[in-house]
Amino acid sequence: MWSWERFNQFLSSANLPNPQPEVWELTYINHITENDARFPRDVWEYLGFYERSPQATTAMDASAMTIQFAWPLPDEVGTLSLDVKHGNRIDDQKEVLVMELTVRGAAKEGQTAMNSWFGVAHHAIVNTFEKLTTNRAHNLWEKL
Description:
The mean pLDDT is 89. Helix content is 27%, strand content 27%. It is an alpha+beta fold. It has a 4-stranded antiparallel β-sheet, with helices on one face.
């Protein structure tokens, strides 16, 4: 049974009203890391929408980066956003590229509407992630 349904059953058994969502959100957070990768220098080895990191007049590699894009989805489903940043993992201090893809949209009433919205959001996130990443990134998680 779906978690949302179980939650509503619990509320009903406790004589509490069912929640009325105003916004739905689905987020996927992807970590890309490889032994010899240095970020932000190597970000373009994994993201296919630019050729190389921009160079400043210092001729040194950039030390930080943040990228954000947003796209409206068809039929007023919501907005898909991409946030890219880099950092170090806490457990081993390994450099990591973080790609966060989120879809947010106005909630509509009913279980069928919710299921449909999350299906569309999932599809948009997965397909966008695949489209924006390179074959090298795909090889890291053994995508065939």
